[in-house]
Amino acid sequence: MTGPTAGGAAGAVGAGAEGQRLFVGGDWVEPGGGHYEVVDPATEGTVGWAPEASREQVRAACAAAREAFGPWSRTAPEERAAILGRAADVMRARLLPYAELAQAETGATTGTARGMQVGVGVARFRRYARVEPAEWPIAPQVNEAGPMGRAGVMGAIAVRQPVGVVTCVTSYNNPWANPAGKVAPALAMGNTVVVKPAPQDPLSVYRMAQALEEAGVPRGVVNVVSGRAVGIGEAAVSSPDVDMVSFTGSTAVGQRIGEVCGRDMRRQLMELGGKGAALVFDDADLASAVAGIGTTFSFYSGQICTAPTRVLAQRGIHDRLVEQLAAYACRLKVGDPRAPQTVVGPVISAAHRDRVESYVELGRKEGATVVTGGERPPLERGFYVAPTLLADCTNDMRVTREEIFGPVVTVVPFDDEEEGIALADDSDYGLIDYVWSADVARAFRVARRLRAGGVGVNTVGRNMEAPFGGFRKSGVGRDVGSYALHAYSETQTIVWPG
Asked: 201-238, pLDDT tens digit by residue?
């Protein structure tokens, strides 16, 4: 079980005779709980053998990060940035084999694995390999004489300080971009990290640790521990050595992590569920709206929290929009993600395929019309779900309200602007919503009224310097760009007499 089973075409660094090793305190160590199989969602074959850490090993990783924090936090920002830059160089040089491994673990199409997984991971390391000011002046304040002393002028600066040890719990839909978006800014700010990757696809995260090790990251600054047992994540979150938890995943798990963090007043950054509303007005460019909404059917096979899965269609274009979305979905080739023509690959596991299919059946029972999809594609192997469009939906249906996390889109009609906004905000979630309208003034007016962390106007694209995060049960905090440096820091104020 060495070689490809441990690291794919990227090599078997950190792999022992029985599979991938953990990365703890700068050493590659055999896991206390043995190994488990990582399955290719497209072929159902074995990708490799992932390590199952023991609780003691997780605690040892947290202790190693605590010991490394003091020296690392005092390292010059330029030196930390240089290490991140060298790590990006290593990742870029191995982009193709790393992408092959990511594709095998996740079932992503080749373009997605190369560009949106490893490619974005590299870009995020490069982004935080540049030094930004960590302090800024505050206007002097004139204080009148009083009980505290004579009149005087007080100067002040605000300084960003590292939080300490950060536990990063990452998602399965992107084992490169998601960990990189946590690890790179956390390290840039002088924090040390313990990464607990998703159990479905952890091998890519060990390749990231390998790149950082080769780039010269000091021992204990980066640690990676994996496992399927719930106790592994619990130990990584609850360790007294941990100062902050950064989590991407379901709202239910985020709530449990939040309870643990709350007991110890521990910092948290939560990127949780989404059920993005896409308001499409009568005057919208339907081709643009269909192309944007259609990404739910294809991109990560709908396994992305930012997807516009809940379409709100003004009645004047409702029927045409449904017809065009159905035609779009039917044109998408479902199958082997390694094939050049494939647009829709598998979902992550058999269990998740069953979950998505159960939601489609629930939609039928709730009264929705399955316009297209709804059946399992006729493929011999792999965890595939056909792109599915549900029409005749109402906002109180579970398929409209709950995050399905698959290639399923629901359509709800509305009459006027006020009703559209009310329907969009009638949700437990509030991550990213979308507005399509030829009237730009109206589109921006509606966007400002939506209770969501982000709003796309006539696009599903993102500005990668803009703050990212959600309202309500979609999360706590903001990251991306400079906002991530704030997220992984504490603000200290220093005051002196002028």
From this structure: 999 999 999 999 999 999 999 999 999 999 999 999 99
Query: Do the Cβ atoms of 165 and 65 come closer than 8 Å?
Result: yes
φ/ψ of residue 395, rounded to 5? -75, -10
Cβ burial, residue 494 (10 Å; 0-12/13-18/19+): exposed
What residue type is assigned to position 266 of the chain? R
Are β-strands 152-162 and 135-143 bridged in parallel, bridged antiparallel, or unpaired? Answer: antiparallel
d(CA 54, CA 60): 10
In order of 346, 387, 478, the CA distances from 300 in angstroms are: 8, 12, 23
Q: What is the mean pLDDT of residues 169-183?
A: 94
Q: Do the strands 310-314 and 244-248 form a parallel or antiparallel pair, or are they unpaired? A: unpaired
What residues contact 108, with CB distance under 8 A and at least 6 apart? 102, 116, 117, 300, 337, 345
Please say whether the dihedral angle defined by the alpha carbons of residues 210, 212, 214 and 219, taken in this order, is positive or negative: negative
- Taking residues 140-158, report their average pLDDT: 82
Q: Per-residue pLDDT tens for 401-435?
A: 999 999 999 999 999 999 999 999 999 999 999 99
Could you tell me the two tokens for 209?
A: 């640790």
pLDDT at position 6 is: 39
Note the helical H segments in 241-304: 251-263, 286-293, 295-298
Domains of the chain: 4-141+150-272+475-493 (3.40.605.10), 277-464 (3.40.309.10)
Mean pLDDT is lowest, of 19-33, 92-106, 137-151, 453-467, for 137-151
Nearest to 409 by CA among 324, 310, 321, 302: 310
Contacts of 451 (CB under 8 A, 6+ apart): 425, 430, 471, 472
Amino acid at 326: A
Handedness of CA 86, 50, 201, 345 (dihedral sign): positive
Question: Judging by beta carbons within 10 Å of its beta carbon (0-12, 13-18, 19+), is residue 78 exposed, middle or buried?
Answer: exposed
Q: pTM of the predicted model, to two decimals?
A: 0.90
Amino acid at 149: G
Structure tokens at 488: 């992984």
Phi, psi dihedral angles at 168 (to 5 degrees): -110, 110
CB 225 within 8 A of CB 206: no
DSSP state of 119: H
Which pair of tokens denotes residue 412?
């709800």
Task: Give CA–CA dist 481/454, Å, rounded.
Answer: 15
* Number of other CB atoms surrounding residue 323 within 10 Å: 15
Nearest to 236 by CA among 24, 19, 390: 24
Give the angle 361-362-368 at the CA atoms, nearest 5°: 90
Catalytic site residues? 271, 305
Q: Are 53 and 225 a contacting pair, CB within 8 Å?
A: yes
